[in-house]
């Protein structure tokens, strides 16, 4: 079993979306010097090669997987279950499968249906998705800087594989959280799927249970349109498959919500709802105080190790009267990459403009 990143010789990126491609860059940033092979169409392979994410590629997944020590399954896939099954059947012994697809929950069935017990599985999840992230976005070696990600080793035997990947992500500036698949499914059910289902129920009641004269175009436009648009987008995505894949966890969390609704009814009868809401707000205020200060923004600059570049940066920011909270050198960087932490959005914007005018490229992290 591989125990460190340097043990890996070949990595396959099956699908070259911005997340998978950025993982390739992050692994390079952590010191990987082997081959990274990209599997996708010709245009995607050419683009990933241009950005330095891969050094070989093609459309044949079997060519990509052959002799790969790590296979990264991309975020966007029409049938992630079949793709995982194919990857599992074709992987060499001790291969690590890192799955980044949004749809999870099928891994247990796929592994139980296979005779393979010599392949390791890690699920990858971002704690908070960026709504601006699309397949058209460029990959970045700084994509994971200051981001929180969850890695879910399937079984105890997958923990050494988790340690390798966690180290690579942490070296790229990410905050890595380990969870069991069950714990993650419960979390995503409570935080994502159950609210979506409750929103659907409310829309269904509003549109189906009222007389036509109550649902006017004005009412629809003001109260419901955005929520209906979101439901339509979910309906066209892999949302249903994701819920079905985690249906046990969703069902369990729905039961928890049902009990909470009954408790709220009791609060209404007893006149104690105000106290309950106040208690929640106090708890939320405490939790918000444990996080990073609101409004902090970060810029990444690469100096190439040239001290004169840092002098140019300091001069440009001083002339623009931009204050910096602090400067941190990025972990795992040998080319002089630094993170500039700004006090607010305005300062971050002015800093980016000043540095651009000085001929210094930046990358913003929110």
Report the structural category: alpha/beta
User: What characterizes the major β-sheet?
Assistant: 8 strands, mixed
Order of adjacent strands in the largest pleated sheet: 3-2-1-4-5-6-7-8
Helicity range: 40-55%
- Stretches with pLDDT under 50, minimum 5 residues: 291-296
**Radius of gyration based on Cα positions:** 24 Å
Gross morphology is globular
- CATH architecture call of the largest domain: 3-Layer(aba) Sandwich
Query: What portion of residues belong to β-strands?
Result: 15-25%
CATH class membership of the largest domain: Alpha Beta
CATH superfamily heading of the largest domain: NAD(P)-binding Rossmann-like Domain
**SSE order, as H and E?**
EHEHEHEHEHEEHEHHHHHEHEEHE
Q: How many E-type strands?
A: 12
- Alpha carbon gap, first and last residue: 37 Å
**CATH fold node name of the largest domain:** Rossmann fold
Number of helices: 13
Give the mean pLDDT.
83
Domain count: the total is 3
Explain what the structure shows:
With 366 residues, the protein is an alpha/beta fold. It folds into 3 domains: 7-179, 3-Layer(aba) Sandwich (Rossmann fold); 184-290; 297-365, Alpha-Beta Plaits. 49% of the residues lie in helices and 16% in strands. It has an 8-stranded mixed β-sheet with strand order 3-2-1-4-5-6-7-8, with helices on both faces. Helix 4 (80-90) links the parallel strand 4 (70-73) and strand 5 (96-99). The longest helix has 28 residues, at 181-208. The radius of gyration is 24 Å and the shape is globular. The two termini are 37 Å apart. Residues 291-296 have low confidence and may be disordered.
